[in-house]
Each structure stands twice: as C-alpha cells, then as structure tokens.
Amino acid sequence: MDEKKKVIVSGIKPSGDLTLGNYLGAIKNWVKLQDEYDCYFFIADLHAITVRQVPAELRKRSLEVLAIYIAAGVDPEKNTMFIQSHVPAHCEASWLLTCNSYMGELGRMTQYKDKSKNKEGDSISAGLFNYPVLMAGDVLLYQADLVPVGVDQVQHLELARNIAERFNRAYSPTFTVPNAYIGKAGAKIMDLQNPTKKMSKSEENPNGYILILDPPEVIRRKVSRAVTDSIGEVRFSDDQPGVKNLMTILSTITGMTMEEIEAKYEGQGYAQFKKDVAEAIVEELEPIQEKVKGLLSDKKQLEEIYKAGAEKANYIATKTLRKMQKKIGLVQY
Ligand code: TYM
To answer: What is the dihedral of CA 26, 32, 37, 42, to 10 degrees?
Structure first.
C-alpha cells in the first residue's frame, strides 16, 4: 500500500491585491509541492477582516485569489482548495486554542507589534492580537506536517508549534506539530522603493510593489524605477539591497544562480539588467493574468471548486475539532 502522503496547509489573506511577494514566496512553491503532498490551500478571508474591509471588495477579491491560485498552476483536482469561512471549525478551534494561549506570547509577535505601533489600545482590534491563534487552528485542524510560507510568517508558525505541543501535553497527543517550509529562493521579496522592507500589499507607495495582476507596462515601469545604488555593479551583496532584491526575483523566476547573473551583467551597469528582470516578471505573470480573466468570467466553475473544497475540508477539520472538544471535556452530542 502507498505510504500516506504528508499534509501541507497554507493560505493567503485577501486583504489587498496579491503581490509578486505572495507569488514567489508562497504560491510558486505550492505548485512545486502539490504532487508530493496532500495539500490544503485556502483563502484566509477570516484573517483579512482583522482590518476593516469594504464588503463588496472582500467578496470580489476572495474569488480573485482563488482564480490566481488556479491560474498559477495549483490544481483543484489534486488539492483541496477552499474559502476559510466556509469551514466553521476554524473559528471554533480558534476559541479552544485561545484558551490555551497566553497574552505574553501573542504580545511578542512582531507583526502585531508593527501593526499596532502607532495606535492607542482602544483602536487596536482584538482580532489583530488573536490572529496567530486562528492561524494555528488553520494548520492544526488538518494535522499539517509542513506549512509553506514566506519568512515573515515563521514566527507565527513557531507559535502554532508551541500551542500544539502545549495542547498535546495537557490533553494527550492530538495534533501533528507542524514545520514551516521556506522555499530556497523568494522567501522574502523586498519593496522596490525601500529594499530593506518586505514587499507588501498594504504599502502606500504602489511603486514599491508589483501586483500579480499589474499590466506588463506597469511592471516594466515599476522595475525601471526600482531603487538601486551608485555602485553600478550587479552583485549579490548586503551593501546593495536593491540590486540584491532584483537578483533574487530574477533567480527565483528563471532558476539562474546568483553567480550566473553576476557573470552575465558584469561591467554593464543596471539598465539591461533591469530590463531583463522586468521581462522575466512579465513572461511569468502574463499567462497567469490571461487565465485569471478566463476563470473570473466563469463564476460557476469557481463555485464548484470552492464548494467541493469546503466539503472535504469540513470533513477533516470537524474530525479534529471533535477530538479537541472531547479531550477538553465538552459534552458530545
Ligand atoms: P499573507 O496573506 O500576508 O501572505 C501570504 C503568503 O505570502 C508570503 N509573503 C511573502 N513572501 C515573500 N516575500 C514577500 N514580500 C511576501 N509577502 C507575503 C507570506 O509569507 C505568506 O506565506 N497569516 C498569513 C495567512 C495565513 C496562513 C494560515 C498561512 C492564515 N492562516 C495558515 C499559512 C498557514 C498571512 O497573513 O499571509
């Protein structure tokens, strides 16, 4: 008999248009992993609402994210693809785990600290504080072995491991303790205007990020304006964060090594290098954009995919939830 495949869980918040960072740090890796693992890829709509969303936009974007997953090559036949809010066990598990989590550990999450930095206590949503517990539930409900994410999510994954281990100790083994899976390249794509900061969909200056659905001419313009330096050499060095970031993007897309890139552009300055980076991105994203358009024009097909995904996800997640409830001492019915 076949050995049981290991389980992978990952998701993206539909809180803004997805960026090249989401694509290279997460989705592109999912495509590579889907044959080897039993994968659950979801739209983290409940995570998106830690910040107020325009309802119609949230609805539209949730479907767009699903279309992007599929267009990028995540196969709905092979993977379970669903919308988080269609699986109520996520919210229920989140409460049970919240009661097994500590204010101290949640308060230490750097993402929470960053996002609440300039705000008064009264205006910081409790959801923003609790969000990593919801994320722990997302992963633990499916007994995930691996969670493919970008570097910025590693701390949340560590927390999920701690919560799982604590629950297992308190109530007997219940959860697989998950590991983060960080891709070899592309784990942290930086802002094009401020290359010491992560590329993010919540950034204010749109020249800092490339969206998966940005038209080719916009991609070319943004790359041509990307901040570099006055050194004038294509070198993979911490002293040249802008160039380093563009090299990372080129390497993650084309598979070229940093040495190969350095050799190719030796003595040439940045103009041709930037043009080639832009073309590599356009070549990678244009076919995805075409497919997204097609998928969004057939909402019925998307609906079938997320409904089938929810059915399977509900079955698995509810099984784990029942175990949790029983162990905690809630009366079964
Ligand atoms: P989110 O929506 O902020 O980002 C989704 C994924 O994209 C990766 N990522 C990046 N990778 C490289 N460079 C970047 N500039 C970049 N920006 C984003 C993120 O690391 C992530 O993998 N809490 C999660 C969503 C989530 C989740 C989960 C993930 C909810 N539940 C369970 C895994 C498992 C989030 O906010 O990611």
So the answer is: 30
Atom of ligand 1 nearest to the CA of 190: 15
Whether the CB of 147 sits within 6 Å of ligand 1 = yes
Q: What is the mean pLDDT of each run of 10 residues along the chain (333 residues)?
A: 85 96 96 96 97 96 98 97 98 98 95 84 87 98 96 96 98 98 87 95 90 98 97 96 97 96 96 98 98 96 98 98 98 91
| Residue 109 Cβ < 6 Å to ligand 1 | no
What domains can you pick out in the chain, each with its CATH number? 7-187+299-328 (3.40.50.620), 206-293 (1.10.240.10)
Whose alpha carbon is nearest atom 23 of ligand 1? 135
Which residue's C-alpha comes closest to atom 22 of ligand 1? Answer: 149
